[in-house]
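Work package 3, deliverable 3.1, input record:
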Amino acid sequence: MYLLIFLSRRLLQGAAVLLIVTFAIFTLLRVVPGDPARLIVGGMAPDEVVEQKAEELGLNDPIPVQFIKYLGEIAQGDLGNSFVRARSGSMGGAVAFDDPSRGDRAEVLDLIIERVPLTLQLAGLAVLFSLIISFPLGVAAGLNPGAWQDKLAFFAGSIFVSVPNFWLGIVLALLFSVHLGILPSIGYKGFEYTILPAFVLAIEMSPFIIRTLSVSIAQIMQEEFISVAPLRGLMRSRIVGAHAIRNASIPLLNLFGIQLGSLLGGVLVIEFIFDYPGLGRLTINAVLQRDFPLIQGIAIFISAMFVFINIAVDLAASFIDPRLEY
Amino acid sequence: MSGDKAILQVQGLSVGLRNDPSARILDNVSFELGAGKVLGVIGEAGSGKTVLARAIVRGLTEPLTYEAGQVFYGGDDISSLSPKRLADIRGNKIGYIGSNPAGALDPTLPVGEQIVEKLLSVSSGLSRSAAKKRVLEVLFAVRIPSAEVRFHEYPFQFSGGMMQRVMIVDALVTNPSVLIADNITQALDVTVAAQIIRLIQELRDKFSTAILFISSSLPVVETIADEVLVLQQGKIIEQATPSILINAPQHDYTMSLLARLPRIWGADISGPEASDAPTLMAIEDVHRTYMVRKKGTFRGMNAVQAVRGVTLDIREGENIGIVGESGCGKSTLTRLLAWLETPEQGTIRFAGEDLSRLSRQELTKLRQSFQLLLQDPYSSLPSRMAVGRIIAEPLLIHGSFKKREIRDRVLQAMDEVGLDRALENQLTVGLSAGQRQRINIARALVLEPRLLILDETLSALDQVEQSKLFELFDKLQQKHGFTYIFISHDMALVRKVCHRVAVMYLGRIVELADNNALFEDPVHPYSKALLSAVPTLDDHPFKAQEYLLEGEPPSPVDIPTGCSFRSRCPVALAKCETNDPDARVLVGGGQVSCHLVDENQPAPNYQIAAAV
Amino acid sequence: MSDTATKNQAPGQAASAASMLTPTQRMLREAWSKPSFKFGFFTFTVLLLGALLYPEISSIDPTKMNIKARHTPPLLIGDWSWAHPLGTDHLGRDLLVRCLVGLRYSVLIGCATVVMMFIVGCGLGLLSGFKGKYTDTIIMRITDAQLSIPMIILAIAILGVSRPTVPAIILVLGLSGWPLYARVARSVTLSEKSKEYIKGQRVLGASDWRIIFLFVAPAVLPPIAFVAVLDVARMMIFESILGFLGLGVQPPTPTFGNIIADGRKYLLNAWWIATMPGLFLLFTLTSLNLMGSALEGARNNVLRGTV
């Protein structure tokens, strides 16, 4: 019951957020230069055709009217059709304006859903890697403030956070694929293609995790209930393992919620570099081709994901610490 | 103490600081704790009490270090045990209770589970269900209401007093032979503290545990200990039974400790006499309710009735005290009086002006005349401003004074409260609590107010500094004719300075009386209960055994029908359940809200023991 | 009474000079005492001076091609020659000078962006935290919305469909990065607002704006500002990412992003074109991050009262 109330509250809030996002991105794409009708029919089409297309798509209506229409379509689960991608999957950009296949555009929603599993696989593996890297560093630093473990974590964090992700991707690809030939790096033909990009992402994320862990563990170790615990008869391993880390996991969860945006941004760039066929590469290509419906669809999809994951994060946090109200 | 059955022996224990080899936090401390005995340790803040408590169980943390000495528990030297043997004793044979129950357990886990965790980790071969059974048993023993339910609740759902009971369970669940109680009543309200002391006394018999009872309050130690150690700057300077220590102290320090204890009752003790004077501030039937979101509902709200119909006249030039336990609505009333918040019902008039009818400008102007002095001298001053500027701030807010004039008035105020003029351009960092409180006073003073509201203003200061500020308040009152409202939980302080006292319970004033009338002949059962909880060495007219209440005040969300005190009242009548008593004026001029009081006859005397 | 006051005051004065400093000064002093801060500070200063001066005083033009010198390997790898310490690219352009010029743009964009994020974010955050109620709800919902679209996606989307110029890049990055500042400013404003001394100021009759400008903002903003150093580094990475994707400052102006993107095509026969500028950037950012982290640590210590 409580859960239901919490979910409905948060979903309503999330809906408000999504509405703002949709409106913002919709308006933005209509005020920037670039004529969508021209894009659809292709550069070679005569002006009348462009005009006709614009009329047909309602592009001549005022923006609020277009927006309401768009919302109506979204409400029915329709994110529109791509301007340039054909249903068959081939790019339509070069096709002549009177080619019949122009009418047969891919659905934005299908395009997105098709890519999601690979992106999730990449993000999941990256989170796993970054936890493996960060946990030992961060916990050791938090337990020994001022000691070498702390300094090590500090320097590792400072260097990791300074690495440009696209550069690291290139260097690792050069090293592992070209010189050593251990791991593949371009495209996707199997799970092993996920490893290198995930590792690059993990390096990008780990400084934040290391920091949060070391700071919150150090703080929690100062808490009364930790300092009294040995007097109550608890062993150190239990104090750290069952209590300190448990309490430190809440800031970690919150970090995850907030940094999710950066994680997705990182995914985008990494997918582009490794030519990994996920949501990120789709986005960049959509932008480069000015495929407005697709850009809009992806933005809305991502912010919806953001909203959902943040609800899940808060829910998880409140299960760990019941003081946090859900 | 008989040496034959000593269960814990401390020999020449010295504790120092890692980076300061000459420092001695504990200096050659030796004593013995007999089986089943209660050994009290008394010492002021900074005397090394807590260090002693922790040093005994090898619980020192950086930068504290052991310098010398041994602690023997049943023949084993605790200071040289292997971690495995230590684990067998610490938390198992020797229980520990700290002063801060609110922070003593992991906030993210249910309390019952944590006690079970502790029990399982110190006792081998116990099954989880057996452990749980044992924990519940002890939870019942400390009289935690509906223990099975509370077993699954989290620390934040417990009040301070209940949480301290939980910690007592945590310590006693292994049936230890020694219990170290480190200032366990410090963070609690007087009534709750008194309940805890009473509980410890009972449990002592039930569990036959020897207790090292450490406290900063001599009256508290006196009620419970068989023998008392006096700790000063890490040294034990005197050891005696409580009665000898009190009646024939040997050491100068002990004597000064005794002399500094505030007196509340006695043939030679009486409070300031009230006198009639015109009303300065008239508070009439003010109410304040907070709407708090109800957890786990969509838009549900809880109405927290913090202040429910307070009526009170503040007389010009008097000191009036407002007392009560935490949660009784004192702080809310303070905010209303200072007009930081407005009452949703009722009026507050200052010098005849209804504050709610004033325009913003008029209010800002009138504000100069009633000022609030805040409780914490550290957080109540802005840290980035020079002292002179802080004091000038009200003048800058309230009108266009010339620079010269401002400075003159600031310096004059600094002189008046006894602040060195040299402090004018310094920041407040590094100033003592007393000096900071003086800055607060000077800041209020430059506006030439008529009424000062003191919200626990003196409770953060030590006795010496407190008396100095009293002198200052007195001087200012003589000179400027100030009126003071003391909001306080400290009955001794109120006894010493207030002409009249109002007792609050659940957002109401249940009794208002002159100082002597209240302290010597209180009428409301709650007033008696409150007084019975005050720790003192004086001949206490209200023995805790007779008047102290069990339990805690109900939540201000769920106020009982009829008389709000009836749920705890030992002498409640049938009509208390339905009728809310009005305030009645007594013969002596006091007012009380209680059905037991008839207009024409004084309240019947009673004793709880007889009534129950 | 007055002589006891002077007596009491003695320890106040005797307390080390450090206690007389404002929190900001104590923070800087604490940061300066750390070697990592000094190292970062000096390294970054040298690099910055190099970026400002070296391309001017050296005769090498960052955009001038020199086919004869193409694919010159960096120092230590190829010939022992100081002519091109980081080597040259496929057109024979000196990589060091190109990196230094790239650094100018990178730092310019990084700093301007952070200033913008700071002003917009902290302004809204202060307002939101102090005013509360509907103002707070509206600002926080907008913040959430902004936060839910990854910054880089927004930047790519806008720059991809419009023309990437320096002001456009600053505007886009700045506008997409403010929410975190708004959140932090709001939460510290909330905690500052609930402090006793603010209540004291209210009792004295101070108005909202007086409290915001005289007390809340000076207490809240400096700590955020110092930690913004870390964000300059973050923004510099974003700038290089945009450059790499072809959405940053356009060639022939060299930026870390477009140099690396160019070099990627020659990875097999001239690996240094892509890797050396990256190392250079990594080195610069590390110095900046060491500085920023030291400041952050110092701030936490000061706030916790351990300094």
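Residues 28-56+67-80+92-304 of chain C form a domain with the MetI-like fold fold (CATH 1.10.3720.10).
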